[in-house]
Amino acid sequence: MRTAVLVSGGGTNLQALIDAKERGEMPHVGLSLVVSGTPGAYALARAARAGIPSVTAARRGYPDQAAYDRALVEILRARDIECVVLAGFLTILGEGFISAYRGRILNIHPSLIPAFCGKGMYGLKVHEAALARGVKLAGATVHLADETPDGGEILAQKAVEVLDGDTPETLQRRVMEQAEWVLLPRTLEQLCERWSQ
Ligand code: GRF
Questions:
Q1: DSSP labels for the chain?
Q2: Which of the residues are catalytic?
Q3: 64 C-alpha vs ligand 1 centroid, how far in Å?
Q4: Whose C-alpha lies nearest to ligand 1, atom 6?
Q5: Digits of tens for pLDDT over the chain (197 positions)?
Q6: Quick one: CATH architecture of 2-108+140-155+181-195?
Q7: Where are the domains of the chain?
Q8: What's the pTM value of the predicted model, to 2 decimals?
């Protein structure tokens, strides 16, 4: 399945996909394109190192949401992309994009949805909120993206223990290592296997 990975930042989840592919763990997934919403994102360097073509498409280069959505769909369709992974992609996607790839867009979120998700809940804010609430289990969720932020069908979740003395940074790191980087490649492979039959 020709897959595009949409990124905005460091791209550690992209790296987890690249590593899983290189280990032979995602036979049904082709990492065909990386799209960055941020010029110069470090994820672009990871793509280049892995030999994956990349494109930068920043929202501010387009007059409105509909124009941005159309441009992204064109970029993906020109490369016959069948499946989309949002891996730390921070730009809002509109109905135009979602409907073009409906049911084929996976998002990874660093909490056990429905906890600590929705508008404004991204990056370290998620882990700050979890620690402030005093939860003992954190985790990550892979779900299908729809028009609602962090809405859409839940595909897989993995829990991670919160430890005494955790800071948002240490919790974020544990959630990434123990949940996100494991769950995303595994779930993507399972779906692509199903879709390619
Ligand atoms: C991850 O925590 C991911 O769950 C969230 O944004 C972060 C992206 O990190 N959606 P990276 O760019 O993959 O390193």
A1: -EEEEEESS--HHHHHHHHHHHTT--TT-EEEEEEESSTT-HHHHHHHHHT--EEE--GGGSSSHHHHHHHHHHHHHHTT--EEEESS--S---HHHHHHTTT-EEEEESS-TTTT-STT--THHHHHHHHHHT-SEEEEEEEE--SSTT-S-EEEEEEEE--TT--HHHHHHHHIIIIIHHHHHHHHHHHHHHHT-
A2: 109
A3: 25
A4: 88
A5: 999 999 999 999 999 999 999 999 999 999 999 999 999 999 999 999 999 999 999 999 999 999 999 999 999 999 999 999 999 999 999 999 999 999 999 999 999 999 999 999 999 999 999 999 999 999 999 999 999 988 999 999 999 999 999 999 999 999 999 999 999 999 999 999 999 99
A6: 3-Layer(aba) Sandwich (3.40)
A7: 2-108+140-155+181-195
A8: 0.96
Q: Is the CB of 10 under 6 A from ligand 1?
A: yes
> Ligand 1: which of 13, 54, 169, 181 to mutate, judged by most atoms within 8 Å of the beta carbon?
13
CA-nearest residue for atom 10, ligand 1, is 88
